[in-house]
Amino acid sequence: MLWASQQRPSITQLWQESWTADPYGSRWMPLTSALGYSTFISAKKILSDSGLFIFKPDKSIQDGRETASWMVRNLHGSRMKEFWEKPNAENQEPSSTKQESNSEK
Question: N- or C-end of the chain: fewer Cβ atoms within 10 A?
Answer without folding.
Answer: C
